[in-house]
Structures are given as structure tokens and as C-alpha cells.
Design a protein that fits this description.
This protein is an alpha/beta fold and about 220 residues long. About 30% of the residues lie in helices and about 25% in strands. It is elongated. The C terminus is likely disordered.
Length: about 220
């Protein structure tokens, strides 16, 4: 199944094309103006793959948390493309995709994203990237209680709070991975879309862990 995957929730925006369990291509950007760069990136990706939008069979998109503007632009773009051909869509939390990037590196995984105001968006996962408990927002310390010493952390929230993590967990792991998510998103989504777990474009919903606020809000 040809799947176009879109992540515009982070400052490492990306779009990717996945087919048959393989990442065929990925376009990566350091995001500033999501609305101006996303569609040209998709057009470039498809053109270089020799495809048109009608050749795509399904869509995947990160649903947040993350940049409020980027999240809305990413969802709207996928909805606009998918509705024209009634293609199925799948939305996955950005935190879940971050956890998938470090799957297998430790028995416990934590995905953390900078939420500004001294807080992080976060969630815990098992070694296979399966969510344990709820996704949430709060000070980084609120995500550290009860974790094993060898826990792996990933996400831009880690960079800002690494000292606090090490103060609590001196043996914490920080795997080095690319922060571009569209390729991983597409590979996660394709088997679920093939298994008919997708939804209609109109049924895609953002994941808000905190309401938007003025000037670059993080939902």
C-alpha cells in the first residue's frame, strides 16, 4: 500500500513515502513556515517518485502534541489530499512515533517533548514501544517515578532536561536517533492501514494535552 506520511508537529518537519514495508523516500526540513513549505515538499517527493497524488492509497499524520500551527497545518493538508480520493487515514501521537524510534534500546522507554513553561509532554512505553499508562504534560520529574535505572529517553524534551533525568536516574540511556519522524510514522501506519484500521479524513482528530495559548502555543 502506498502511504504518504506527514509530520509537521516538530521543528524537524518531514514527509515520507512508504510502500510494502519499505521507506521509499523522505523529505526533511527544519520547519519555520509550515503552510508554505509542506505542500511543495509533498509535490517534490511525489514528483521524484514518479507518482501523482491519485496514486497514493492511504495517508498517515502525526496528531500531536507539538506545534499548534504545525499540527493544524499537517492535519488539514492530509485531510485535503485524502478527501479528494476518499482514501483512508491514520493519525498517531507524536510521542508514540518518538518511542518507536528507540524501540528495543531498553526495557522501559520514555518519549519527551518540550512543552515550554518548564514542562514537557511525555509518555512511558515498554521495550516494544507499547504505551504504558497515559500521555500527559507536566514537569519532567513527574515522568521519572518508578522507572528502572536503565530507561531510554528520546525527544527534544530530553535535551532541555537531561541533567534532571540523570540526577534521578544516573544510568539513563539517550539513544542517538534522527528527529525526523515521517519515515517511522509511515512504517508504523502502513500495516494498520492495510488491516483496515484507518479512518475517513473527516474523522482525524488532533491530540491536545494542553490548550493553545498566544504566540506559538503547544497543544
Amino acid at each position: 500500500m502506498r502511504v504518504l506520511a506527514v509530520d509537521a508537529t516538530t521543528d524537524h518537519e518531514s514527509v515520507a513515502l512508504v510502500h510494502g514495508g519499505r521507506l521509499l523516500a523522505e523529505v526533511r526540513m527544519v520547519a519555520q513556515l509550515h503552510s508554505r513549505r509542506l505542500m511543495p515538499a509533498i509535490e517534490f517527493l511525489l514528483s521524484n517518485a514518479g507518482l501523482a497524488a491519485q496514486d497514493l492509497e492511504a495517508y498517515a499524520v502525526t496528531t500531536g502534541p507539538g506545534s499548534f500551527t504545525g499540527l493544524r497545518v499537517g492535519l488539514a493538508t492530509v485531510q485535503g489530499l485524502a478527501v479528494a480520493q476518499s482514501a483512508p487515514c491514520l493519525g498517531l501521537s507524536t510521542l508514540d512515533v518518538l518511542a518507536a524510534k528507540i524501540e528495543g534500546t531498553a526495557d522501559a522507554l520514555v518519549a519527551l517533548m518540550d512543552a515550554q513553561r518548564g514542562e514537557v509532554f511525555g509518555a512511558r512505553y515498554d521495550a516494544g514501544g507499547r504505551l504504558q499508562g497515559d500521555r500527559g504534560i507536566g514537569p519532567v520529574e513527574s515522568f521519572l517515578d518508578g522507572l528502572p535505572e536503565l530507561t531510554a529517553f528520546f525527544g527534544d524534551g530530553v535535551e532541555k532536561h537531561q541533567d534532571a533525568i540523570l540526577a534521578r536516574l544516573p544510568r539513563a540511556l539517550f539513544p542517538r536517533r534522527s528527529r525526523y519522524l515521517a519515515g517511522t510514522l509511515g512504517l508504523l501506519a502502513e500495516p494498520r492501514l492495510t488491516a483496515l484500521q484507518g479512518v475517513s479524513p473527516a474523522d482525524l482528530r488532533p491530540l491536545y494535552l494542553r490548550g493553545a495559548h498566544i504566540r506559538g502555543g503547544q497543544p
